[in-house]
Amino acid sequence: MLADRVAVMTPAPAATIGQIFNVNLARPRTRALFNDSEDYKTLRNKIVGYLDALNQGQKAQANDYGDLPNVTPLDLSSPRKPKPSEKQLPQAYLDAAHSPIERRYLEFFNLKKIYPTPKGPLTVVEDVNILMDRGEFISLIGHSGCGKSTVLTMAAGLNEISGGGIVLDGREIDVAGPDKAVVFQAPSLMPWLTARENVSLGVERVYPHASRVERRDIVEYYLERVGLGDAMDKRAGDMSNGMRQRVGIARAFALSPKLLLLDEPFGMLDSLTRWDLQDVLIEVWNRTKVTAVMVTHDVDEAILLADKVVMMTNGPHATIGKVLEVDLPRPRDRKALLEHPKFYAYRQEVLNFLEEYEHGHAGKSSQKETEAA
Ligand SMILES: Nc1ncnc2c1ncn2[C@@H]1O[C@H](COP(=O)(O)OP(=O)(O)OP(=O)(O)O)[C@@H](O)[C@H]1O
Ligand SMILES: [Mg+2]
Question: Does domain 103-179+257-371 have CATH number 3.40.50.300?
């Protein structure tokens, strides 16, 4: 968006300049204009394609944590007999994932949060109403400081609710617990424990009636799914940020939560690792269809993963400004989506919304959301 030329570097070791792309786009440039420009889209897809190819090549070479095995996803809603070559979801997981409630599985009603401040009580969010069916994935997007994390931590049972409420699977949320798994920007792992031990910690609590072998199967299943099949016995402290976040994702899924909450899960990662982990998340989510709410600043990510993008207005008194239904085919693939005509229309809608709220909000840091394009 800013440059005249984009020089793409190849991965280390022995990194060098790979391809150089000329950006022949008129100036002055704005994000909104870009979205409608065919030249921009073509160039963007070219660069993304090139980076993706580099990334695939690197993955094939460096067998640090290996590729995911090529197995057909299991559909939990209509169980079928797996081929012997397919590894099935562990039975203890399937039992824990069962619930009779399908519709209105998660409901936020008139949710409100008031924080005490030195200047008196501050209503950060109010009138937040969201209805989710079981197995839905929503993204929550909005400017920095509007209250996304506040909403998420209330759903996790980690932050006291000031008004209204949140009902999950027929029960009001009031305390934290493993039925609500949270993935933050940086996973809170025990650095001296291995990936396997870190994931096992929660699993032992969640499946008290499962046998040791069943619990081990669950841990290994998810570590393999996130691409850590070869690194299960590596200490978390010796892992890269991307690998640690993989452990965090495996741990969250292994808990068989009723609700998965993600707060900018890839916010600290570079964009290539981020894409990798988005793919991992899409893949694991496709298998489990766990009900999920993800906070993100990345417009593409918000659309790529979700069934609905929920847009929040600015705080204080932030609320839901707009909900976008994402009608894109699943299972999803980032590259195919970037070429899907609807994707750009959705992107435009979200960008317009964010732009509308960008103004009149001086003094607040709103750098983060500009990184998305
Ligand atoms: N414990 C607290 N006490 C008082 N005010 C708080 C507290 N936690 C958050 N806030 C305020 O509530 C507002 C919303 O914060 P929150 O962290 O939920 O925003 P956010 O949308 O997640 O922002 P970001 O995108 O930067 O992560 C901010 O103005 C923040 O300063
Ligand atoms: Mg936040």
Answer: yes
